[in-house]
Amino acid sequence: MAKVTIDGIEVEVADGTTILNAARQIGGEVVPPAMCYYSSLKDTGGKCRVCLVKVTQGSAKDPRPMPKLVASCRTPVMDGMVVQNITSPEVLEARKGVVEFLLINHPLDCPICDQAGECDLQNLAYEHGAGKTRYEEERRTFEKVDIGDKIKLHMTRCILCYRCTFVADQLTNERVHGVLNRGDASEISTYIEKAVENDFSGNMIDVCPVGALTDKTFRFKSRVWFTKPLDAHRNCTKCSGKVVLWSKGDDVLRVSARKDEFGEVKEYICNECRYDHKNMSDWTIEGPRHIDKNSVISQNHYEKIDMQKLKLDIERQIQFQKGKQLPETNQSPA
Ligand code: SF4
Ligand code: FES
């Protein structure tokens, strides 16, 4: 075990734990942001640099500070290490610079982007972004591309975090897309837009931290904060069947995997659950999905939903789909 102090808070973690994961064990504002690291995908991290922290004491044995800021997702803790995240003005300044770089090519099209409201870059820009850009060169632009019949790639928004390629590598049998070219010519591509056809390819949408990969069955249907997220499950032979239904009235607009407090998928779901079951009657509803109070999605206070009324509404929907007579709309639960 190793004792590490992050922003003045001490935590004891297993040897080999990264600074980022040690901070996650503390939780709250101490946790550095992460745009490319994903704990359930091997070898992620080290690409975006938003997780930079300052190591003011390397270890108990060698207390010298590290000479440069380090990527917390890739740096293991040492016993006696002292780290600064939000308590270091140098880190905050560097993070501002990283956000400025990420926004060089990423368009500020949040008002029309389906990721708005659940976009890590939008949150980062809000917290660390500058009001103006200093970039005067021409920006990269791309035509939108269909990756299969359910996913739209909007390369202009991609920040090259590589998460989607790790999903394709590690969750599906056959990877047919990847990062082509190098430097500012890098882009996600599928070689002649070959469709990604395998049962878990839809998870690329959930791991994408920005709006570069979006669900074509949900695109432009609703702003996410106007939807009502519900935890639901079904018996599925391919995955756990545990999902979030993003509904509006009786309509299920989107099905996604459940994410943890760090915005990472808890259990990957299959494409059948994601795309082929858009009726309330396909699911067992567990209740309203808890969304962090700092998220814009929490604005509509859906957690105060009357569960009895919700069950009645769902029953009405099932009856309607079966072609049976609807109960009275103002009928109160028995
Ligand atoms: S498409 Fe999304 S997940 Fe894939 S590399 Fe780009 S930003 Fe990352
Ligand atoms: S999260 Fe650490 S470099 Fe991207």
Key terms for this structure?
NADH_UbQ_OxRdtase_ferredoxin, 19% strand, 3 domains, membrane, 2Fe-2S, Ubiquitin-like (UB roll), 7 helices, five-stranded mixed β-sheet, 2 iron, 2 sulfur cluster binding, disordered C terminus, 334 residues, 19% helix, alpha+beta, four-stranded antiparallel β-sheet
Q: Could you characterize the architecture of this molecule?
A:
This protein is of the alpha+beta class. It folds into 3 domains: 2-92, Ubiquitin-like (UB roll) (Roll); 103-215, Alpha-Beta Plaits (2-Layer Sandwich), CATH 3.30.70.20; 224-321, no CATH class. It is built from 7 helices and 14 strands. The strands form 4 sheets. A 5-stranded mixed β-sheet has the order 2-1-5-3-4, sandwiched between helices. The longest helix is centred in the last third of the chain and has 15 residues, at 307-321. It starts with a strand and ends in a 13-residue tail after the last helix. Bound molecules: iron/sulfur cluster and FE2/S2 (inorganic) cluster (FES). The site of FE2/S2 (inorganic) cluster has 13 residues, from loops.
List the helices and strands and how they pair.
Blueprint: E1 2-6, E2 9-13, H1 19-26, E3 52-57, E4 70-71, E5 81-84, H2 89-102, H3 120-128, E6 145-147, E7 151-153, H4 163-171, E8 178-180, E9 187-189, H5 203-207, E10 213-215, E11 228-233, E12 242-248, E13 251-257, H6 271-275, E14 284-288, H7 307-321
Parallel strand pairs: 1-5
Antiparallel strand pairs: 1-2, 3-4, 3-5, 6-7, 7-10, 8-9, 11-12, 11-14, 12-13
Helix pairs in contact: 2-3
The protein binds iron/sulfur cluster (SF4) and FE2/S2 (inorganic) cluster (FES).
